Amino acid sequence: MNASRSTNGGTTFTEYGTGLIHTDVHAITIAPGSTSTIFNGNDGGIWKSTDSGVTWTSMNNAPLNTIQFESLALHPTDRNFTIGGTQDNGTTYQNSGGVWSRLASGDGGFSAIDQNAADTTNVSMYHTFFNQTNNLIGYEVSTMTGSGVWTFRGCSGGTSQNGINCGDNVLFYAPMVRGPGNPNTIYFGTDRLYRSMDKGANHTIVSQAPFKSGVRVSAIGISPATDNVRIVGLEDGTVFATTTGANPLTQVETGNGGTIPDKYIARAAIDPNNSNTAYVTLAGFGITMHVWKTTNLNASPPTWTNASGSGGTAIPDIPVNAFVIDPTNSNNLFAGTDIGVYNSTDGGANWNPFGTGFAARGGVRHGDSKPESGFTCCHAWARDVGNFHRRWAKLANNQHRNATGRPNFRRAADHIVGSFCQSLYGHNRRVISVVVLHQRCWRHEHDYGYYAASRSRRRAD
Question: Domain 73-372 is of which CATH architecture?
Fold first, then answer.
């Protein structure tokens, strides 16, 4: 939605800023003591007008960063090479030198990088746009970094192509994940599961078509060890799986009064070290168990148990939007939630907030890890950072003052952020995060970590 204004007490409204600022407005404020200086917060960040909305200036320049990531994908060996979908701001790319640029405009959803890349030039990359039945369903692929050449795979303009049907029911951000193999297989979910072995040139339906009438696929998990082990979650809580590559898949959770609560399946993951162990995570509220685990996926039926912890070491009643299993230690789990990252070191029996010394609460959408290069990557946005501000101000006043004796807020922020990164990842780890602050923005980079803190908009959902 765009913004409108009234000059007659609300009797009539006139839209303003069309073509000058980003659409999908979330916040509007007028500067104190002024009737003409307006700030507009939208899906594109923050914009400012000093003439009552006639002209607008983007405020989205360093050090203010306002990008919200929907997904991340990592290069198999280069610790900087990253792509990610950034919602209404396209798909972005960080090169080997740590410089970000936009790869593709439009909506940026899921993303993937083929793990067979031997260098940083010849890299197969994938990203999704928004999806709409009978209009646009699919994703783009590029095989050369920096070429700017992307090829769309799927339904476009109502014409079915590459084996993807235009008439499927599909989520706005349809899930897409990679499997093993060379090239990596690509899986794409609508109300059925598609599989491509040739970088999207052709797709085969490898499931029921549809899984359930009128119900869309919300999560896909593929074993890194074998392409035959697949698990699919639906928006109504139903779960399907196969450990043999069978079609149709077996329904392993009813989604209607079964063991797992009937909530939106947000993520599905298979243990990279044991293909019979799998997890699904739930969005929504009103339940205390948002992570579920099976250790016998190959059984008929598998047994699902709560892996959300219990009592004081449980994940709170909050959506779990992202889930990562440490490929070097299957008991080491990471859950991205609406209030930040939680970690379990015992396979889901107990959970604790991830890290110490940093009290910001952030919503995490997606995560990825690469044991080969020894780093983990996550991203977040924060909704309540009052505790951070209190510690920030205390440090600035008590420990970090400049030459004139005034509080050095930037040095205090670096202190907190640096300690946080080091406590989370040690000296060989790297973290990327986006966190909302009410003041300014800092970037912190050392050999032990990288953390970006920025003022941003609150997510509408």
Answer: 7 Propeller (2.130)
Other Cβ atoms within 10 Å of 10 Cβ, number:
7
Would you list the domain boundaries of the chain?
3-58, 73-372, 386-453
Tell me if the pTM is above 0.70.
yes
Token look-up 């990592």 returns 74
Q: Are 416 and 423 in contact (CB under 8 A)?
A: no
Q: What is the mean pLDDT of each run of 10 residues along the chain (461 residues)?
A: 79 79 82 89 86 86 75 92 86 89 85 95 93 95 84 94 97 96 97 97 97 96 96 96 97 84 95 97 92 96 95 93 94 92 95 66 51 43 39 51 56 48 38 31 28 28 30
Q: Read off the amino acid at residue 448.
A: Y
Question: Structure tokens of 292?
Answer: 């579920």
**Interatomic CA distance for residues 376 and 157, integer angstroms:** 38
